[in-house]
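Notes, Module 5: Reading structure tokens.

Key idea: the token line is not a picture. It is a compressed description, and you learn to read it the same way you learned to read a sequence, by spotting repeated patterns. We will look at two proteins. The first is printed below with its tokens.
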Amino acid sequence: SGLTLVWVVLFSKRTTGEEPTRTQVVAACTIILGEIVVTLCGDHEDDELLNIDLFNDIYRSSGMVWYFTCFAAFYALVILGTYSQDKFLQRVAW
């Protein structure tokens, strides 16, 4: 979720025709740098507690399947909104 702003800045020109400002580009680059630092320097000690069987059980649970189904439906609506000719729908999607 930390990269959401980055994607908005990257695709704003193509989808809405709005050119990102210098401040937005700097903010997006700072977020990317922060994500890299957290990935490299973050706590990795809990990796051993999650084995493949537990991982599969989590992602095959009914709650997780329901979550991904709703997420995919919402994402599809957002994509349709961004490619709509209606400026209002484009702004709502972004």
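Here is the second protein, with the sequence above and the tokens below, as before.
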Amino acid sequence: GNNDADNYIPMSPEKRPPRQGGDMSYVKDNIVRQMDTYMAIRKAGWPDDDCISDVYVRNPELNSFWYVGKVARCTGTVSLQQA
């Protein structure tokens, strides 16, 4: 065929431009760091999973929600709404 996929030549990693996205780009170092943070949050909330919550933000004009992270509350700190 005569399409872009037929003419694709992969670029070697050393010639690729830097990834966009900074500390959120999908590379091994960032994934490991984010996994470590997630495990620390789970450990802080253990064994009571009720103190671990997902956090979402909402665009009231579009009624859209985006997941932004997790929070763990420890005994004697704050309520979910305050967190």
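Summary for the second protein:
- Strands lie at 52-59, 64-72.
- Helices lie at 28-45.
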